[in-house]
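Worked Example 4.2. Consider the chain below.
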Amino acid sequence: MPECLICGKENEDCLCNVCRAETNIKSLCMKVITYEPGSGVDPLWEEICSKLDKSYHFRSIAFALSSDLPTPIKEYIRVLSFAGEGANIPKNCRPWFYDVYAKIGDDRSLSIEEKHRLDGIALGAYYMDYEYEAAERIAQKLLAAQDVPNQAVCNMGEFFTATRRYELSAKVLQKALTRFDGDEAAERRLTYAADKNHNQHEKALAGKQEYLPNPNENRDETRRRYISFLSSIGIEATLPKPSLKSTKIPKDKYPAPVEHREADFDSFVAFDLETTGFTDTDSIIEIGAVKVIGGVVQETAEFTFQELVFPMDHKRVSPQITALTGITDEEVRKARPINEVFPDFMRFVGDSILVGFNCMSFDSRFMTRAGRYTNIIITNPYFDVMHYASAFKYKLGYLSSRVALGELAYTLNIQNPRAHRALADALTTARVFLKLKGSDTAPVSVSVDDLLSDLDEW
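Applying the procedure from the previous section yields the following C-alpha cells:
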C-alpha cells in the first residue's frame, strides 16, 4: 500500500487526509518534481523511490497529486512531471503537450517564470520534432525576455547550436552561467550545453560535417526543410553530396585484434565504447577516449574524445541500455554515423596502444566491425586492464574469476561519478591501470590492508 509523502503512514493515496489538509499541494508537487533520488536528502522519499521500477518515476507522483489543483496550475504541474528538471518531453507525450501548451501557455494566472518554463519545454519539443520555424518563434521570444529559467536557456542554446548559430549560443549560455553562479544543477546543465556548442563550433571551423537532422522517417524531406530554414535566417548551407557506399572488408580478410600483455609503456589512449546491447549484432552508440602521456592523464579537450554515434543498421537503444547509460534512442538518432565518427576517432588514436577494460572480449569486436565497414585496418595493439588486474585480485581481496571496472575502481578509491558513459569509463580505466602499474613491484605476500594503504598514497 502506498505511503503518505509527509508522514509515511500507509494510505491509499500519496497523502493522508490529515497531511493533505495541512499541505500546500503545488509546493509539494514542485518538491517531488525536483527531488533527486539517491541524494539521501529525505529518507522517507528514498524508501518510496526504492520501491519503484525506475527511481525517476518518483516525479510522476506529482501528476496524481495535481488532481486537486485548479487549471492551469494542474496542467503546468503535469507537464513538469513528464519533463522533469531536464525540461524535455518524451516523444510519445508531445501531442498531448502541444495541446496543453496551446491552451495554457499564455494563461494570466501563470507567473512569468512559469510561462517561460513552458516556452522552454515547447522550444525543446518543437526542435526535437524538427519543427524549426515554430522553435524559432519561441527562441526569439525567450531571447527578448528577462530571468529565463536555466532549463529554457539550455534548450535555447542547443537549438541555436543545431541551427549553426554558435556565437549566439555561446553568448546566451555564458550569460546564464554568470546569472546562475552557485546553482550546481543549473551550472551542470548549462556547462554541458556550452561544451557541446564549443565542440560543434570547432568542427565547423575545421571544415567537418555540421549537424543535420537524421530522423527515421522522411529524412530527405526533413533535411531539405532544415536547409531551407537555415537559408531563411541567413545561413548558407547545402546538403552533402551522396557518396557511394564503400565495400566493407570481408571478415576473413580483416586481421584479428592483437593483445599487448606487458605493462611496459606510459603513454597510451584509454578508450571505452557504449553499445545498443551486448551481442555481436549490436552497434556502437558512443566512443570515449583520453590520452595518457608519460603516465599523466590528460583531461583537456585537446586530449579527450567523446561522441555519440548513430547506430549501424538503425539499431534501437533498448530501455535497459538507457537505464544503464542514460543514453536515449532519441539522442543517438541525431548523432553522426560510424563512417564519419570512426575515422575521426582513429586519427585521434594515431599509433598509440589502445587500453580498455575487458576490451579483448568485448570492445575489440565492435572496433573490428567499425574498421571493416569504414575500410580502416586497426594495427594498434590492445592492452586489457581486466586481464592485467587478474594478477592483483588476490592482493586486493577478490576471489571471483573476473573483476568489474566499477568494483575495482571503488577498491582503489578512484571516483567515477558518470559510470557507464564512454569517456568517464575511459578515464577510470586509465587511472585504474596507472594505479595498479604503480603497485607492480609490491610483494605477493603483502596484506590487503597494506596494499590498499600503499595504493591510496598515490
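The chain is about 50% helix and 10% strand. The CA atoms of residues 144 and 386 lie 54 Å apart. Compare this with Example 4.1 before moving on.
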